[in-house]
């Protein structure tokens, strides 16, 4: 443990824990990850998950998974299941059983009554709007509610009436009696309980009053024995209330709240509310659309759990809000796939080549490496014949001196194969090229040309060895770096965020993929040579047409753009 604590001592949270450990040698670190089950997890949550679970591992403590389920209107069991699944997929295990704030509702109710009995809470009958007006602003102090000085007996009676469902929603709430002129707005008699007539996914119809986040969170932390409660910076002021509630109730365990900065990532939206808008308006296709940074979207795009963990380690944990470069996230997956991905050829936008000096029945097997620098990844077989596909982009009809790929009268090397020379083209009646007629230098396999420069290399697939595939090329969803800051973020959408191409992959590779495509645990990823890293989209693929999602480009296109 010592070496690890030292190693990470730059992180301010480790400093806090190391200091606490110095003071109390028997301290057993206990953290929690507290998602509200009102949406799916995203990369921002991953930052918090890595922090909480890894601290617990590092210090041989525990990390609870607690669903912060205090608002039944927005919550749903399907989110509970997907959140658990994502945490497990990320590689973390929570301590014992899953916890829910709702399992503490009876205790929280007793603590609320305790505050009433101590004269520290009251039932208010102002409307929501009036409460807001009475609260004041940063510049003006608040005003006491006319219901603030009710007697303890009356408050107890009214609170019980709230619990029994004898008030309508919005007619009454329980508020802490703190200070309406506090410089911290959260301390101006915050609401502790509100009435919601809605069936709860855990407690069903047992309650019609629900604690607010502020009331439930600190008390749940205390009940579960959490030692360090990490949350994001916007809860800094709420810490006053967190400590106030723990101090004024008869809890025996004092948890402590610490804040760190939220993750914001360039060109991305991370707020669940805003992601939900993108889905409702069908701008993206659901929670696992690869263009949004939900864990399920990233997974579908081809990110591995280890690349997401690596990203979280690299960004670290600080108290400064900043915007992390998107290229950092891409670096983590590219780096991993560069080492692991099998290289194969795919043609995304095919154009046909006919090699007129090769026989129609010539079929030549070529053995190609799966990875240029890692022979342990093996080899695979491709076929060379007289009709092949190349990428439309790799041929230019008009003469262009600077163009280094295939053009009339010039030579090019087919990857792992022969040098060919383009001689003429055939077009259909609309003027589209349908065939490039080429000569094949049959003595060029594995040999450098004599007295000539090495020609450029392009990828290709023999038509006989091709299998239909669709390629989904994802680009940023937003045109601006910080869409999260914009109220009308929908006006900054990139209309080219998804480009679909229909082409081919090597048949032998396709056959292997088809055998494995129904195995949920296998992540099928490739480097399509000269194009990028792709993974199989298991949901959209069929046995007669495979679909691939582009995970990341071969090079950092962000930094190239900046240059
Ligand atoms: P959102 O704004 O997306 O709705 P939230 O904070 O309301 O997020 P919760 O489900 O309440 O979502 O979050 C669970 C935990 O994840 C909290 O501790 C929260 O601080 C943390 N978290 C959420 N978003 C981020 C983020 N962008 N960066 C770091 N931590 C985050
Ligand atoms: Mg929340």
UniProtKB/TrEMBL annotation:
Task: Alphabetically list the UniProt keywords.
Answer: Aminoacyl-tRNA synthetase, ATP-binding, Cytoplasm, Ligase, Nucleotide-binding, Protein biosynthesis
Q: Name one GO biological process term.
A: glutamyl-tRNA aminoacylation
One cellular-component annotation, GO: cytosol
Q: Where, in this chain's numbering, is L-glutamine bound?
A: 68, 213
Q: Which EC number(s) does the record attach to this protein?
A: 6.1.1.18
| Motif window: 'KMSKS' region | 269-273
InterPro entries linked to this entry = aa-tRNA-synth_I_CS (IPR001412), Gln-tRNA-synth (IPR004514), Gln/Glu-tRNA_Ligase (IPR050132), Gln_tRNA_ligase_bac (IPR022861), Glu/Gln-tRNA-synth (IPR000924), Glu/Gln-tRNA-synth_Ib_cat-dom (IPR020058), Glu/Gln-tRNA-synth_Ib_codon-bd (IPR020059), Glu_tRNA_lig_a-bdl (IPR020061)
Record's subcellular location: Cytoplasm
Q: Where does ATP bind?
A: 36-38, 42-48, 232, 262-263, 270-272
SUPFAM superfamilies, sorted:
Nucleotidylyl transferase, Ribosomal protein L25-like
Molecular function (GO) terms for this protein are:
ATP binding; glutamine-tRNA ligase activity
One matching Pfam family is: tRNA-synt_1c
Q: Which reaction does it catalyse?
A: tRNA(Gln) + L-glutamine + ATP = L-glutaminyl-tRNA(Gln) + AMP + diphosphate
Q: Where is the Glutamyl/glutaminyl-tRNA synthetase class Ib anti-codon binding domain?
A: 341-438
Subunit structure, per the record? Monomer.
| Protein name as it appears in the record | Glutamine--tRNA ligase
Q: Which organism is it from?
A: Buchnera aphidicola subsp. Rhopalosiphum padi
